[in-house]
Model the fold of this input.
Amino acid sequence: MLFMRTNGSGHKRVVVALACALAVALVAAPVAGAACGGVKVVKPKKNVSRGPAPLAIGDSSMLLALPDLARKGYKANARGCRAMPEGIEVIKKADQRGPLPRLITIALGADGTISMSQVRQVLKITGRKTKIGLVVPLETGGRTGHDAEVVRKAAQRYDKRIRLLDWPNFSNGHPGWFQPDGLHLTFPGAAAFARLLSKALKNLPPPKD
Done:
C-alpha cells in the first residue's frame, strides 16, 4: 500500500492520479492474459504410429492449423502467447501421464525467445526414444530472427535426434498463406503448415494391426 502526505490540493491530485494508474494496471494485466486465450487441444483423426499419438505443441500461429494437424495424425496442443518455457511444461506433463510419443513437434518462437539450453532441456526430458521436430519460427511481419538461427543450429548439432521443419523456406513465395501480420495463417496456410509437419511422421514405426 502506498502512503503519501498531502499538504495541498496539488499533492492530493498526485495521489489520486497514482491510485488511478495502479487500478488501471491491475485491471489491464488479467485482460491482456485473457486476450491470449486458453489451451486448445485436438485429438488425431487417424493412427499413424505405434504407441501414443505424435504431439504437436504451438502458439497462436498454430491455432488455425489444429484441425489439419489432427487429420494428419497429430494430437495438437496450442495456446496464444505461448513461449518455450510453457511448451516445456506441456512436455513434462505428458511425460508424467505416461510414455511419451515417438515424435514431439515444437512450433514456438513467435512469443518470447528460444535458447539452446531450452532445446537441450527438451532433449533431456524426452530421451533418445522420442524424436523432436523443430519448426523454424517466423516473427511478426513475416521475418526470421535469432530464434530461427538457434533452431537451425540445434538441428545441426543434434541431427540424430532433431528433424528440422523449415517453415520460412517452405512458405516462401506464398503470401496468401498468411494474414496481414505475416505470421498467423489463412486456411490455405494452415493446410500447408500441416503438410510440412506431416513430413516428420514418415519415419515413425507403423501402428500395430
Q: What stands out?
A: The radius of gyration is 21 Å.
